[in-house]
Amino acid sequence: MDDQNSATSPQLPLLEVRELRAEFCVAGGVGASKGSKDATGARANCVLRAVDGVNVQLHDGEILGLVGESGSGKTVFSLALLRLIQPPGRIAGGQILWEGRDLLHLSEADVRKVRGREMAMIFQNPQLSLNPVRTIGSQLSAVLRLHHAISPHQAREQSAHWLREVGVPDPERVLEAYPHELSGGLCQRVMIAMALSCRSKLLIADEPTAALDVTIQAQIMDLLLELRQRYGMAILLVSHDLGLIARMCDRIAVMYLGRIVEVAAATELYDSPLHPYTKALLRAVPVPDPHHREKLQVLEGEPPSQLRLPHGSCRFLGRCPEAVDRCRTTDPPLIAVNGTTHEVACVHYGALGEAGLVEVKDGEKQGVDPSSPPARNVIWGDQESEASR
Predict the structure, then answer these.
(1) Rounded to the nearest 5°, which phi and psi values hold at 189?
(2) Are the C-beta atoms of residues 231 and 237 closer than 8 Å to each other?
(3) Which candidate, 242, 327, 209, 212, places its Cα nearest to that of 68?
(4) Vertex 377, ends 374 and 378: CA angle to 5°?
(5) pLDDT digits (tens, 9 = 90+) for 307-351
(6) CA 307 to chain centre
(7) pTM of the full predicted structure?
(8) Contact, 143 vs 194, CB < 8 A?
């Protein structure tokens, strides 16, 4: 009976994030009124909420893509998962459940045991992520000895082994080299080897190919796919490159102004995007086809300042071509569409009281009064959005 129950019970996610919020205190920021001061007489502070109520899951061996414009909160979210946000930033609330344990309730010493050993991260610029005054060998060995009770000689041998695993030619020479003596591609392979050396279950890759040329980008992506296949490692791939995300990922989460606005399987998201922001991002992707004559569509306007976010309305309202009056008074949550795993945060997909389920089909809104005028001249604080001018 126990075996039967275990066979039918859903598999727990490797990582589950619930209502995660991360914010930064900005002294005298633009969100404070002119001349305002706090109780001590100092200039008033503002809170910039870079991650605002994110919910997402990642399963064992899965590659999840996280996409969005610059400034959407992708990197802050990635750093928050490892509790690497430094003052004036802080994690303001939520849960980060790693194999059932809430990392936000662990001591700093316990979190250090998770970093590197169970969850690892590689960054946008690998050469800046490595210590410039230590050799590659000493840095790899230090990581191995930190997490495993091994001798310096064993650490040296394992360092060479992991460099070979990620396709580094002549690993003995690379172990003696300093970061500035290696190319960007080699440095990124070193960072991946460092993550693999402790057999991490999750690799967080924050724009891992942003500083590399096109040919090296393809090699690094092929390497990540190969390592996922070989070791069953889950990957959170952060990028603004939708073409790259489409090729790599099982599922994709779209982030806008600190929130997830759509999550779906990669093929479903590209074939049937629901959120207007996702549609706009996909329309802006170049098509490598000489017979494709359609012009790229630019997403007009700029996101509102995260110090002056709208209250009680959709955050994409000022730039949305599908906005209706209800968008002004509704801040839509992320919900499953028609009971599927496709989730979206948009008033056009969800229960709207007497209006029932509102859904966009074939470019037409269902369940919405067609006489409702589109939202225009949206004001953020005391500044009119660029999209409405």
Answers:
(1) -65, -35
(2) no
(3) 242
(4) 90
(5) 887 788 999 998 999 999 999 999 999 999 988 899 999 999 865
(6) 21
(7) 0.81
(8) yes
